[in-house]
Amino acid sequence: MERLNGAIHGADITVITIYFLIVVVIGVYVSRQTQSGDDLFLAGRSLTWAAIGLSLFASNISTTTIIGLTGSAYADGISVSAYEWMAGVPLILLAFVFAPLYFKSRITTVPEYLEYRFDRRVRQYFSAMTILLTVIIDTAGGLYAGGVVMRTFFPQFDLWIWCAAIGLFAGLYTAAGGLRAVVYTDVLQAIVLIVGSSAITYVMFAGMDFSWEKVVAAAPVDHFSVVQPTHDPQLPWPGLFTGVVLLGFWYWVTNQYIVQRVLGAKNLQHAQWGAMLGGMLKFLPLFIMVLPGAMAISQFPNIPNKDMVFAVMATEALPIGLTGLVLAGLMAAIMSSVDSTLNSSSTLIVHDFVFKNGTKPDPYKSRRYGRVTTIVLMLIAILWAPQIKDFGGLWSYLQQAFSILVPPIAAIFLVGAFWGRGTASGALWALIAGHVAGGGLFWLTQAGLWPLHFTINVTIMTAFSVLVFVVVSFAGTAPSSDVIRNTVWRKDMALDPKTAGSPIWTDPRAHAVLVFAGVVGIIVGFW
To answer: 501: which residues sit within 8 A by CB, 6+ positions away?
Structure first.
C-alpha cells in the first residue's frame, strides 16, 4: 500500500479519526456531569491517583517536547533528557511538602496559597504573570508547534488553519467538561503517547540489531552521556544539578496547569500517589523519545533540520497503521498541553481576579465565568499562534527567558514554606528585584557580555532573590502565628493519617525512594 503524499496512508487517517472520536465521546460524557465551578476547575475534588499520574505525564509532554527532545538528542546527544527524568526530585517535594500545605489551605489556585502565606499583592502579581506566560507562550506555542508539525504531514492546509482547528477542538471540550474532561482525555492521550513512542523505539533499536554496543559505536563521543563539561552549550553539569532542579520546581510545584491535577485529588494520599506515579512515568521520555532520536543519527544521518527528526522516524521507520498511531500520539501531546493551559488560565482569572475580598459567585455563575473565559483565551491563543513564525530566533530566546521568571518564584515558595519569619513585603520585593535583575542578566547574556549558561544563571538569581527576601523580611514585622499555622510546613503535615500502618507497597514514602533511586540510577548509568 502506498502512503498519501508520500507520508500518510488511508489506514493511518482511520486510526487518527478513531482517536478523535473517542476524545469527543469523553468530552460530551463529562460535560453532562459538570454542574459547578468546582466541577469545572477541580473535577469536584474527586480525582484518583492513576488519573492524576497519567494526566501529569500527558499534560507535560507537548508537541515541542516530543519534537524538541528527539531533535536535540539527534543533534547534541541525550543530556537534554535531564529536564524530563529530573522531574522526580521536585515531584517528591510536591508530594510531601507542598501538596500537604495546599490541602491544609484548601486552595483552588496556587496563587491563592501565596495570599494565605503573604498577601493579595503577591497572589495577583504571581497570577497575572502566570496567565500571561501560559496563554502567550504555552498555549499559543503549543498551537504553533502543532500546526507546524501537522503541515509536515498535511502540507495542503495553511498554518493558521491547523492552529485554529487544534485550538477550537481542545478549547471546546475543555470549556464544556473542565478539568475532569482534561484529565480523562489526558489518560487516553498518555496511553497513546507511550504506545506510539515505544513503537518508534522498538523499530529504531531493531535497526541496530538490538545491540547497545552498536548504538554507542555509531554515535559521536559522549552522545549518550547526561553529564557534560562546564563549557557544553546544551547543558553543563553545574546546570544539571542546580538549574534543572530549580526550573523543575517552578514547573511541577508552582505551575497552576500542572498542580491543578493534584488540587483535584480526592484526598492527600491520592495526591501523593499520583505525584509519585508521575515521577516514575517521567523516566519514560528518555527511553521512548530521547534515545530513538539519538539513534536516528546513524540510521538517518542527513536530516537537514533537527526538528524534522521525529517526523522522519514516524514516516520512514514505521509500517502503515503504526504511523497513524504515532501521529495520534503527537496530536494527543498537542491536545493535552492546550487543554491544560486553557483550563488553568481560566481558573486563575476567575478565582484570582473575578472573586474579590473572599466573595464568590454561586456555583453556576462560576461555571459560566469559567467557560466564557476558556473560550476567550482560546481565541487569543489562536490569533497569536500564527504570528510566532515572524519572531524567528527571538522565539527560541523565550525558552531561556524562564531563567528570568523562575528564580524569585522558587525563592519565595521554598523559603516561605519552611521559614515562618518571611514576610509579604519580603516576598513582593524578592519577586520585583529578582525579575528586574534577571532581565538585566538575560540582556547581558544575549549581548554576549555574560558567558554562563542560563541554567547556571537560574541558580545565581535564585540565591539573589533569597537574599532580598530574607533582608526585607528581617526589616519588617514577623507574620502572626495565625498566618503561618497552615502555610508553613511541619513534619506532621507530610503524610495523610490513613498512611499509618499501611503496607509498604502503598506507602508514598516507598514510592519516593523508588523515584529518587531512578534519578540516581540514570545519572550513574548514563554518566
So the answer is: none
